[in-house]
Amino acid sequence: MGAPKYVLLSYDEGAEAAGEDGYEQTWALCQDADDLFADPPPPVRETYELLGCTPEGALRTALARARADGPAPLGQLILETLDKRGGGVDEWWLEDVHVLGDRPCARDLSLRDVTVEGSRSDDNPLDYPQCPPLSPGYRLRGANGEPWGGCRDLAHVQEDRPEQLEPPLRLLGCSPRGALRVALDAGEEDLGHVKVVRVDSSGRSVQAAAEGELRAWIPSARGPGLVDLTLDPWSERPPLAAREVWDLWSEGRPSEPNRWAGCDAAGRRFWLSTALANHPHTLPDRPPGTTYHLDGSHITDPPGLFCALGETVNGPAGYFGWGWDALDDCLRGNWGAAPPFTLVWHDADVARACLGPAPHAPTFEEILALLAERHADVRLA
Q1: What's the pTM value of the predicted model, to 2 decimals?
Q2: Which helix (H) or strand (E) holds 101?
Q3: Which of 103, 139, 97, 132 is nearest to 116 (CA)?
Q4: What gap in Å lies between CA 368 and CA 312, rounded to an integer?
Q5: Phi and psi, residue 20, nearest 5°
Q6: Contacting residues for 250 by C-beta, under 8 A, at least 6 apart
Q7: In what order do the strands lie in the sheet with 291-295?
Q8: For the chain, what is the radius of gyration of the CA atoms?
Q9: Residues linked to residue 155 through DSSP beta bridges, in sequence order
Q10: Which residues contact 264 (CB under 8 A, 6 or more apart)?
Q11: Least packed by Cβ within 10 Å: which of 76, 126, 257, 316?
């Protein structure tokens, strides 16, 4: 039998949600898996109507272009929900918005009903914004807070879409044991719920891969006594980038720095999730006043910045934040470094040139400001 890449653990959703320990049992070692990796589908683009709209700024410009030439790009659109006094309550975002057109508002001919198309932001607290009683509607703004007017209501234009069917996950060359072995020998149809975990060559857990329900099995061509299992996952599948990252961790936690540097942006983002999954929370912070040296030669995108910071503080494959808010938390202590500390940033010009404005991503100057605010003395080298 080849070295297993995955372990199947018994899964109890209630026990996991309650934070219980020791309920997981090893049900199988698996040599490999088919149809495990899949990038999430692109964001669903949906159509909305800004009812009773008074367009201003870039929205008014895009609307004029849409009238003349067809759908016009607008970018990110923020709808700020107003209370009955006109004060802001909540925000709701649409990404990659295009203005499709407009028509006179049936309730007030001095206003317009503007039709837009866009994708709901993953950061939205709700699937659909809710106005409080007696609200005058929404204040419209751009990504940087630019005023784009307002609207009295928002309508979602429903569209029928075929349901996306995903193939089941096939676990290959499995050696069942425990309750799973008993269920297979008894010919039971209900094989149970499992968690699939990626392991390294020593059998140590690297990261959870999937959760779901086992529903079928066949004898495996990979060896006598082995079976191939079919699993219907209810969790998201690991992205395609996970394959490369897990291969880099296949011999255990990498001991050399910058193993992440050859990954593209998607691979670096997944590297951060793997580093977080393997972060030793029991280790104390290094004392205040410590000096850290940041290798900036590979910081060519935001994920690269956080990969490099993780290794600076916590060694190769270390973790120290995966994004803006997570970095802010780490800078407060309990993640390896106790403030205040000194950060010597080598090859800082690489990051200065590459970390430009991007949605939900900090700029080079914003990173420096956050570090200074959290009592990190940054010295550019």
Answers
A1: 0.79
A2: strand 88-104
A3: 97
A4: 16
A5: -70, 150
A6: 5, 200, 201
A7: 291-295, 341-346, 376-380
A8: 26
A9: 49
A10: 241
A11: 126
pLDDT tens by residue, 300-319:
999 999 999 999 999 999 99
Q: How many CB atoms lie within 10 A of CB 70?
A: 11
β-bridge mates for residue 103, sequence order:
113
Residues 135 and 84: beta-carbon distance below 8 Å = yes
Distance between CA atoms of 339 and 149, rounded to whole angstroms? 43
Q: Rounded to an integer, what is the distance from CA 367 to the centroid of its chain?
A: 20
Please, which residues bridge with residue 196 across strands? Answer: 8, 210
Res. 1: pLDDT tops 60: no
**Model pLDDT, residue 359:** 58
CA distance 30 to 226: 9
CB 8 within 8 A of CB 30: yes
Could you tell me the CA-to-CA distances from 213 to 112, 229, 232, 262 in Å, in that order? 51, 10, 5, 35
Torsion angle, alpha carbons of 345, 350, 352, 353, to 10: 180
- The strand ranges marked E within 184-238 are 193-199, 205-219, 227-233
Token look-up 């719920």 returns 193
Q: Which two tokens stand for residue 189?
A: 């149809």
Tell me how far apart the alpha carbons of residues 29 and 174 are, in angstroms, rounded to a whole number.
5
So what's the pLDDT on residue 16? Answer: 67
* Partners of 51 in beta bridges: 153
- Token pair 């802001």: residue: 88
- How much is the average pLDDT of 186-209? 95
Whole-number Å distance between alpha carbons of 373 and 339:
11
32-76 pLDDT, tens digit per residue, is 999 999 998 888 899 999 999 999 999 999 999 999 999 999 999
- For residue 285, give the nearest of 216, 232, 341 by alpha carbon: 341
238 vs 243: CA distance, rounded Å? 8
